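ok so dumb question maybe but i'm new to this and my supervisor (M.) told me to 'just get the structure for NADH-quinone oxidoreductase subunit A' and walked off. so i did the thing. is this what she meant?? sequence i used:
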Amino acid sequence: MLSQYLPIVFLFALAFGFSVFSVIIATITGPKRYNKAKLSFYECGIEPAPMSSGPNRFPIKYFLTAMLFIVFDIEIIFLYPYAVTNKELGLFGLVEIFLFIVTVFVAYAYVWRRGGLDWD
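this is what came out, is it supposed to look like this??
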């Protein structure tokens, strides 16, 4: 029984070993040219304020874009299982996925209409 899981355990061990090996080799062989610009903070194209000026505030467009990405990324996650099992679901699955896509496009049109995708 446990011998059936041996290839999966081996694959996880191989992936873990490769990732550790890659990080160690990159650290050893990579260039080490540190300067002030490379060590400074950088967030979404906004130049950081000096440390003594208090906390920085991010524009709301940053958070809106992040939330929209999550919404439309989740849409793709829900579409993938349908694509795999569309023959078994038949007409019922087709109607349900059509309603799901219409709902997502209504949300997309609302955000577009409200100017959520404008970067002025």
